[in-house]
User: What shape does this take?
Amino acid sequence: MSSVSDGILEFGDINFFYERGTPFIKDMSFSIGNGEFIGLLGANGSGKSTILKLASGLLNASAGDVSLWGKPIVSYKNKDRAKLLSYLPQVLDINIPYTVKELVGMGLYPYDIMPELTVDDALEMVGLQEKAGALITNLSGGERRRVYIAMTLLQGAGLLLLDEPLANLDIKYQIELLRLLKKLREKRGITVVMALHEINIALQFDRIMLIKEGAVIGNGTPDIIMTEGSIKKAFDVDVDIMRESSGEVYIKY
Amino acid sequence: MKIKLILITIIAAIIFALALFVGPKPINPFNINGIDKEILFSIRLPRVLVSIFMGMALGASGAVLQGILRNPLADPYILGISSGAALTAAFGIIMGLTVFGSVTIPLLAFIGALITGVFVGAMGWKRGGFWPERLLLAGVGLGFLFSAMLMLLMSISSDEGLRRATLWIFGDLSLADWPVLPYGFIFITAGLIVAMTRARALNALMLGDDLAHSLGFSPRKERFILFISVGFMTAASVSLGGMIGFIGLLVPHIGRFIVGSDNRVLIPISALGGGVLLCISDLIGKSIISPTELPAGIITAVIGAPYFLYLLRRKDVLSF
Assistant: This one.
């Protein structure tokens, strides 16, 4: 298990129970350092979303501590936490006819003094500046997701916890979003933790945490983690890892 | 947006002025004699103020409730608060209670509304917070129970008591009088201020609890505060003049068609719209076949519903 001394997000022996009985998350410990680009990879129901909810403070651990920048997450005031961390859930089934601009603008709610990033900047980042006045209810599923991503970016937090943000996105926007996040990491030093289940996408990350049945069963760079054996273990499926002479890696299934 | 707001405020001011000076006996504001003064201050002003406050409370409560329950069909009466108020008020009317003079019935209605609100809140509370679906179902369930009890009470009451209780239930603004106004004013103004200062939280709550949390709000705390504000506004409104339909349900939707869904604008607009609609409805109700008065609640629906349906047809999007 990798250990980063300047961890901004740390799980210390976390256990979490949805119901009495067996824990859903079992004795989980890990540390995420500043500026890391981390993919949580695992099958449906493996616990990825629960890990993100625990990390965002939305769920409280049944045992153990979640720390944010060295302090227990529960010790932060809601508004202060929101300036450090933003969480985008997987399900966004919202039918309130906010305009794109109104919704993205909510990213500024934690602030009393407005940060330098504006709604227009955030919309430009996701390529939706032309839709600023449109109603969110009139957008496609992929466009809606980009609007929420713009809101999350506008929130300006250093740590982004994104639950399957690439779902419903065309391949073009999947690639653009990954590029944008990497660019933001370079420019602003943000840290990204993203839940995903698409194994080829996982190759884009600095570090992969492979999740199965509420436990981390692999943690390291894609080179180390993305092996036929570990994917079989996590997803119960046979794949071929192809390594081109150019160094490119892709997974065939 | 600013022009729309200014326009709506001007229309509201004109209607409030009209309600004071137009009526079964028109009053010339530039030539007021002693009788006019008496009519203006003893009858019309309290009645206009009651209609404004009631309408404001219902419009704003509807907007807030549709938000916290995330249900476009929610209105202040869906929580059963009004049924509780109606039951205690009808009991007072039928029994001829006058312990506290003219404020007896409003006071009884207020107490009934608050007790019901606490009950619904307790039923909707689980694991440290309100659950929107539980609140809604608890309100509907209690509403049915109280309505049944009310019907039982009315079926065994005298004709005169029955007539007066029925009038009150339909919304009878002719009972408006100065002594009840300060209570209504305090609770409705306080509720409105709380709702308006929590409008950003309500916007976030409408995105779902997960996103509201991420944006720095405590969904449980915010829902609790907003529920309390709606409870007081509805209780005060029902106690001022009975139950007025339509406003709490449809004025917020009309507001969304006109100014959009941002609650920072929608709550004040729904309040203003509710006040205007009830004020003008009462003016029409008492003037159209004078001296017979039509209950304002009937007029609000007769004016409001066609306008709502017109907007529904014209706009290319449903408001929720």
The beta strands of chain B are 125-126, 129-130.
